[in-house]
């Protein structure tokens, strides 16, 4: 199946700093990618929809100025957690879908575990 | 927006027995219902999906049923094995190509050897 790569797999940062997470589709193009957050033992919650060449669409309750999303190409979307705080510690995971395929699954990245200390 | 509920939250079965996980959804426009298996700290893996034009789909030991009228769908795992132990998530979306998934709360399945 298609491969979505997320980097880094884990990161520890100090409170107040910013962290950038990359999501790449390695063998297909994706006009749309999705960013989810997953707290321990909880479900995946959609944060935002990343659209190539345009602004991201954020879900209700997600601060767009805190979680900056950039989708500069058909294979790369980035999520930047700005001024991170301990409550931002979570598992962040992206997904993407092949624009050339019809009726296909969403492919997930391996996730990024963010710990803010 | 879509609201997906999933039950039970935990499920323990003896090896060889069947496991059933149920989900309901709220948006009648949803037409794509995948099930994901997630092991601790890893990405969700699609195990089976169903679209609204069919009522049941089976893949070896795994089957999914869909009742569009009642807005619920279920995952059935037969002849469970210890390696089936994981967290299972159902999801729903309007499959317009954007593939915006709304997930259920998850079920932690434990298969006891």
pLDDT averaged residue by residue of chain B: 92
The global form of chain A is globular
Shape of chain B: globular
- Please give the number of β-strands of chain B: 11
How far apart the termini of chain A lie comes to: 37 Å
Helical percent range of chain B? under 10%
Order of helices and strands of chain A: EEEEEEEEEEE
Order of helices and strands of chain B: EEEEEEEEEEE
Describe it:
The complex is a heterodimer of chains A (117) and B (113). Chain A is mainly beta and 117 residues long. Chain A has no helices and 11 strands. In chain A, the strands form 2 sheets. In chain A, strands 2, 4, 5, 6, 9, 10 and 11 form a 7-stranded mixed β-sheet that branches. With 113 residues, chain B is an all-beta fold. Helices cover 0% and strands 54% of the residues of chain B. Chain B has strands spanning 4-7, 10-14, 19-25, 32-38, 45-51, 56-59, 62-67, 72-77, 86-92, 102-103, 107-112. In chain B, a hairpin with a 4-residue loop joins β7 (62-67) and β8 (72-77). Chain A binds chain B through residues 32, 34, 36, 41-46, 49, 91, 93, 95, 97, 99, 103, 105-106, 108-111, 113, and chain B through 34, 41-46, 49, 51, 89, 95, 97-106, 108.
Task: Give the tags.
heterodimer; A: 117 residues; mainly beta; seven-stranded mixed β-sheet; four-stranded antiparallel β-sheet; 11 strands; B: 113 residues; six-stranded mixed β-sheet; five-stranded antiparallel β-sheet
């Amino acid at each position: 199946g298609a491969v979505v790569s997320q980097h880094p797999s884990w990161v520890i940062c100090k409170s107040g700093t910013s962290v950038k997470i990359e999501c790449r589709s390695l063998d297909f193009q994706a006009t749309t990618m999705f960013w989810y957050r997953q707290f321990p033992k909880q479900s995946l919650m959609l944060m935002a929809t990343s659209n190539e060449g345009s602004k991201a669409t954020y879900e209700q309750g997600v601060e767009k100025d805190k979680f900056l999303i950039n989708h500069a190409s058909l294979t790369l979307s980035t999520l930047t957690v700005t001024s991170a705080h301990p409550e931002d510690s979570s598992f962040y995971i992206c997904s993407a879908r092949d624009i050339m395929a019809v009726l296909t699954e969403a492919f997930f990245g391996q996730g990024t575990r963010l710990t803010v200390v | 927006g879509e609201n997906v509920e999933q039950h039970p939250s935990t499920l323990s079965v003896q090896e060889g027995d069947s496991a059933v996980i149920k989900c309901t959804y709220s948006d009648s426009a949803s037409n794509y219902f995948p099930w994901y298996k997630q092991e601790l700290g890893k990405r969700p893996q699609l195990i089976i999906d169903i679209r609204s034009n069919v009522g049941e789909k089976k893949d070896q030991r795994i089957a999914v049923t869909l009742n569009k009228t009642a807005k619920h769908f279920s995952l059935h795992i037969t002849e469970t094995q210890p390696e089936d132990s994981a967290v299972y998530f159902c999801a729903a979306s309007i499959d317009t190509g954007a593939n915006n998934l709304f997930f259920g709360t998850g079920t932690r399945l434990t298969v006891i050897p």
